[in-house]
Structures are given as structure tokens and as C-alpha cells.
Amino acid sequence: MVTVPHIDGKIMFRRCLVTFKPFRIFVVGIGFFSLCFLMTSLGGQFSAKRLGDSPFTIRAEVLGGLESRGVLRKISDMLEVIMKRIDSLSKRDNMSDTRILDELSSAIDRFQPAGLIERIQAIAQNVSNMAVKVEQILQNSLAAGRVRDGRANRCEAPQDPKYPDCTSKLDWMRARWTSDPCYAFYGVDGSECSFLIYLSEVEWFCPPLPWRNHTTPTTPKPRGKRQAAFRTDIGALLEQVGTGKESLIFMKRRIRRLAGQWGQAANRLGEKLKRSWRERKKILVHVGFLTEESGDVFSPKVLKGGPLGEMVQWADILTALYTLGHSLKISISAKELQGFLGVPPGRGSCPLTGPLPFDLIYTDYHGLQQMKQHMGLSLKKHKCHIRVIDTFGTEPAYNHEEYAMLHGYRTNWGYWNLHCKQYMTMFPHTPDNSFMGFVSEELNGTQKEYIQRNKVNNMAVVYGKEASMWKQGKERFLQILHRSMEIHGTVYYETQRPPEVPAFVKNHGLLPQNDLQQLLRRAKLFIGFGFPYEGPAPLEAIANGCIFLQPKFRPSHNSLNHEFFKGKPTSREASRFLVSSQHPYAEQYIGRPHVLTVDYNNSEEFESAIREVMTTKVEPYLPYEYTCEGMLERVHAYIQHQDFCIPGVSIGNDSKVWPGNSSSHFVRLPNSSGLAWAGSVAGPSTWPPLSAMRLLLSEEGQSCVEQCQDHSLVCEPTFFHFINSKEAFTQLQIQCDALESEMNHIYPAFSVSRRDCCLQKEPLLFSCAGFHSKFQRLCPCRDFRKGQVALCRDCL
């Protein structure tokens, strides 16, 4: 090999030729030509490859692909000429060695461009490096071969009846293991052994391999419980919420504005709980609807009159969790979600192998879908920790995927097979879900007196920030209102007054929250147009001393007759939570004198309502459950007592009938046909406690929501587990001709025509909302705290 500089190389080459006989010279020439031919071939093969593609790659910084091939061609041409000269010179017997060397030297000089030797050195060095790498690869291959030879027979799909899906999963892995980078993350490399190791140790489709080291994995020590302490300084929370979106800026302003009230509420609740020990939870809050991945249609509309209800609720949820003293992580992007959960990189095909790093996860339907994409199979394992913020609610018939598909309840939402109490609503639409709510600003005594002194008796404010809400015949009843009252609007506009707003309306444009509060404190009437449904604004107006006037819907709106509710996972068909007005909660839970619900199409009824407004004096009013203290109380109870991961109450289990003779578990209520849990019987530990339960039988065609409310009670789906038995029918003095058990969202129930007693087979379908015209339902009811419908009297 030529490894010396240019001049010394010529001298050494000449010395070599002096000592070799012609035949030897010919052999050496052929050998060097063969080496160059190999280098030419390798150069042509690998020079086009990218850096890092192969261990054989020629270093691009030394020699480019085209240049290297050109140099190698020149070397080949030179050697061919030299070989011809050597052949002709060897045939001349009368030539001296000195003459032969001179002839060859002149031939070499003709084929020696500038830098040729240096280039030859670079190629030679690369060839040397390639030889080392080839040797390493061969050694590794031989070592791996020896390992494979030792376990070749051990990497065949085991035939184990306990793992019936192993073979099909192995076939799937062979074909699709490159479809998600997470498989390579767990060591899958395309070999049979890596497939089986993954399917037996990361997933659970194949049996453990006997030749693997199966030392019992160390069970992670349960996190030590820490005590939660109330917080009143919101600085750290504001930093966590972040910036960059108008929605986040709105939420932070709201948190700052109400910080004082949250702090006072925390002190009052602490006294009420007598400073009892509370566990501090690790909580992830993932606001899915604000992520870029979900489209985030809300943030751009914050300053243009768009809906704010969801942001109001999320701001209050964050503040409540933080004030209660829990450890929070806040995610506003799918990337943050993936990082917080610690899921493997990829598309969510692989499960989490470690424990979930959070006790609770609050998200929404968008976030739930994103969690499914990133967690894959792990979502089923960990979904008992999830709480879904769901504005309008999800009924059991829509939540159970198989049942929804079979009976026409399938929608774009729903179908997640959660415990329905994991869905948390803005208003208490149905007791099948948990009522999360939000807060409105609470006034002190001085503020209330000031408002009452400064109310303008003939001033009305319209509930409608978008110009589109003023269309479709609104001017007719606005003309009637205008005859008696001065009308104010807060309709968004950029440069010109919206043409939809009548000229007699004084439009202030979109107002900041503080300015809107001042406007409401002066106004006597807050009037709704029928949309938006069930927002926070009417409660804020009532809290500032306004009377809320809203339209009565005839017929009531629901998922069958109104476009807005179509596709939502709730029917709103049961009479007690029909959408009978723009704001059913205000109509049913507050009512007169603070709320008037009338038919806007009836001019006389509408005018009578206006006169009633102007002659009625009301004080500012806010239901306790919508105060900061009320929300803290409710969220505290949920966090400390709701546990959907407990065996027997967990998702998907068959109904657990309380064992023993159920006839001894119930006692008849005095002066009533209902039953209560016998105080002498030690029942299982459950929340709400069984002492709050009342068992009633509904009328035909009546839901349990209605039956319980008729007795000033609330339906409690948690108690269905304890009444789903024949003995419960017997204690209610119902004679069963037959007993059946199946999946049906109105069971347990009694068929009046067939005299059949029907038990529920699927716990996820226990429903307070279900009803049927031919069935009487078994209804588990409970009492509730004054002003706090979500909690029983002994629930705190």
C-alpha cells in the first residue's frame, strides 16, 4: 500500500522495482491493480449513500462521490499503462535495470496530477476503516448467530389456551411492528424473539417465556399520603396557566378578580370541616378544547363576543383545585399531555408500563380523544382516574358503547364506557352525572344595599353579544319592551353598528367583565332571546339584582326536535330536565320573583311580565352551590370520596348484589310506601352513605328523576347496586310472575302488563333518566343539603 509522501513514494517504488525480477514485478502490479479495482467498485457502490447510512460510507469530507470515482479511474488507467510498459520491457534482455526504472518513472510522471498521492492516501485510509468495520460486523453477527442458535427453538409461538390471541398478535407484529415507533422503543427489532418478549412482557397476549429472567418486578411503593392545606395566594397558579392565547388571558383575569372571594371561602370551609385531615392529590388538568390539535375555535372569538361559558368553568375548576391545596399540572397542548403522562414516543399503540403519575385527570371530550391517541391500550386500565368536564351531560344509554350501537344512541361523543358519575356538568341536568358547576361573584351586604338604592327601574339589558342572536323576529317583542323600558345591548362590532340591532337599542359594544357588572347592577331586567342555552350570564345578572326574563319553549327542546341538541350524548326527554326554556336551572331551581318564564309569542303574557318586572323589588340572589364556598365544598367531597377504581364499583363489572337475605336490609318508612336501609344492618362502605337512601317505586312512564323530586329527594345512581334484586321488589310488595336480567337502561323495573320483575345486567346502564310508558322503575333516592343538590346531608 502506498502510504508515504509524494517524493519519497517515487524513490521507494523505484527501489522495489530494482530488487524484483520481471515476473515479480508483474505479480505485484496485478495485485495492486486488483486492490484499486475493488476500491473502484466500493466507491461506486457507496459514494451515493448518505452520511450515517452505512458503516462502509466513504467520508464525504475527504472525497466526494464523483471526484473519488474520477481519481480511481485515473489510477486504473495509470496501472494499465505501467503493466503494458512492464510487459514490453521484460521482453528486452539487453536493457539495464537503470534504463528500466527511467522508463517506468517517466510513465508514472505522465499520470500523476497534483494531489493524486494525497487522494490515494485518503481512499486507502477509508478502505482500511471499512475493513475494521466489516470485521466488527462479522464478529457481532457470529455472536448473535451463536445466541440465536441457542434459543432458536425457544422463539416459537407457544400454544397456551390461556392466551388464545397470541398467534394472531404475533402475525400482526410481523406485518406491522414498524407502524409505530413505540415498538422499537420497547426493544422490538423485527426478530421473533423480540415480538414474543414484547407480547409477553409489555402487553399480555402471550405467556411469559421460560428462558427469560422472570424475577418478580419490584412493586413501586405507594406514594406516601400528604395532607392538603388551603391556599389563598394565587401567584403560582397564574404562572401555571400560561399565556399566548386570548382564552388564557381571559381565564387569568377571572382568577385574579375572584381571588379574594376564593380565599374567604377557603377559610369558611376550613372552619366547617373543623380542620379535618384531607389528602393532597396529584392532579393533571388537560384543557382539550383549547389545544391547537382540537382546532381551538374559542380563543379567537374571546374578544368578538364568542361563548365564554366553558372558559368561565375551567378557570373556576383550576382555582378550586388549587385553593383546596392539591398538586396541579396544567396542559394546553397534546405535546404537554404526552410529556406529563410519560407515554412512550409514537402513536399510542403501546401501553404505559409504569404507574400513572396522577391520582386524577380532569379533561373534556377533546382531551379524552387525545388521551386515547397517546395512551392507547393504557387508557382502559387508567380511565377510572379520569373526570370529564361535560357541559350538557352524558346519559348512561349513550355512554355504553355496545348498548348505544344496538339501540340507536350512538353519537359523536359518549360511548366511552365510563362510570357516568365521571362526567361533570355545568348545571345539575341529571343526577346520573356529577354536578361540577362554576361560581358567580357574591356581593356583601354593603354592595347589595348600594345596588338596591341605584337600580334604574325602567332599564333592561339584552342577553346576546353576537349580532346573529338579534335576528329571526326579535324586533316585535323588543318594540313592546321599548314602550316601557330603555333597552341596552352589549353586541360586538368592529367599525359600524350591527344592522340587526334596532335603532332604539343603546349598544355599548362588547364590554370588559367589570364594566358589564356595573351595567347589570344598574339594570332592572336581563332579557334572554332563547339562545345561548344554559350559560353563566343569567346567574350573574340575578346575583347583581336583575330579574331574568326568558322565553318558554313549546314544545320543549331535545335531541329529537332541535338541531342544537342532535348528536349530544343526552336526550333531555324526561320531563324534569327537558329544555323547557332557555335556562331550565333558573326556571326550576330559582323561579319567581327572580326568574320569569313566559311565552314570547303571546303579547298579553309578555306585556304582563314586563309590568310585573317593573313593580317587583328583588334583592341580589345567588344559590349557595354557585358561590365559591359551595363549589369548594362540592369539589372537596368529590375528591375525597369518589373512587371509581374500587373493585366491585369499577367499570365493566357485573352487578354486585348485596349478599344475604335482602329482606332484612330494608325497613318501611312511616306513612310512606317507600323503604329505607335498615340502620341495624351494617352495610358496605359507600359514598353517599346508605343511611341517606330511600327506595321508591315510580309510576308507569315516569323516570326516577321525577319520582324522587316528587318526594323532595334526588335520584342517586350509586344505590342501584343495592336494590337490584328480587328481594327489593318483594319488600315493595310487588308480586313477580317472572324474573329476568338483561341490559336495559330502564332496569331494574316492573312490567305492569306482563308482571315481570326485570333486573339490570350491566352496571354501566343504571340510569336515573331512563323511563318507559309500560314500566314502573325501582328508584334509589336520597336527601340533599340545603342549597347543595350534589351532596346528601351526611356527605360532607
Automatic annotation (TrEMBL):
| Location within or outside the cell | Golgi apparatus membrane
Q: What is its EC number?
A: 2.4.1.155
Domain of life, per UniProt, equals: Eukaryota
Sequence ranges assigned to domain Glycosyltransferase family 18 catalytic in this UniProt record:
182-781
Q: How does it sit in the membrane?
A: Single-pass type II membrane protein
Q: Give the record's keywords alphabetically.
A: Glycoprotein, Glycosyltransferase, Golgi apparatus, Membrane, Signal-anchor, Transferase, Transmembrane, Transmembrane helix
Q: Where are the transmembrane segments?
A: 23-44
Q: Which reaction does it catalyse?
A: N(4)-{beta-D-GlcNAc-(1->2)-[beta-D-GlcNAc-(1->4)]-alpha-D-Man-(1->3)-[beta-D-GlcNAc-(1->2)-alpha-D-Man-(1->6)]-beta-D-Man-(1->4)-beta-D-GlcNAc-(1->4)-beta-D-GlcNAc}-L-asparaginyl-[protein] + UDP-N-acetyl-alpha-D-glucosamine = N(4)-{beta-D-GlcNAc-(1->2)-[beta-D-GlcNAc-(1->4)]-alpha-D-Man-(1->3)-[beta-D-GlcNAc-(1->2)-[beta-D-GlcNAc-(1->6)]-alpha-D-Man-(1->6)]-beta-D-Man-(1->4)-beta-D-GlcNAc-(1->4)-beta-D-GlcNAc}-L-asparaginyl-[protein] + UDP + H(+)
Q: List the protein's name.
A: alpha-1,6-mannosyl-glycoprotein 6-beta-N-acetylglucosaminyltransferase
